[in-house]
Design brief:
By secondary structure, this protein is an all-beta fold. The chain has strands spanning 2-10, 16-17, 32-42, 48-51, 57-61, 67-70, 81-86, 89-92. It has one domain (2-92). It has no helices and eight strands. A hairpin with a 2-residue loop joins strand 7 (81-86) and strand 8 (89-92). The model is unreliable at 8-24 (pLDDT under 50).
Amino acid sequence: MYLLLRRIRRLSLGKQRYKKTTKIAKGGIARMRTKALMVFKLDDEGNAVYTQDMGDLVMFLSNSEPFCVPATSFPGLYPNYVEIIDFDELAFV
């Protein structure tokens, strides 16, 4: 099991936070961008250990349900990637 810490920068204020918060901007759209991601793997005792390698997995992160799939099962996906799919942001990290 993996845990993901997502670093967000609020575009309107320029501040960086590790907690995803929203600021409603003109037009009612939350304006944020991901600055960094940290991936942690849970060890056998349940401790979160930082890792830079998720192996063959691709992690999809959105405001709804996050999930992982093996990259080798889906042509066009790259292993050890996180894909962010948000209302105002689409990125591979």
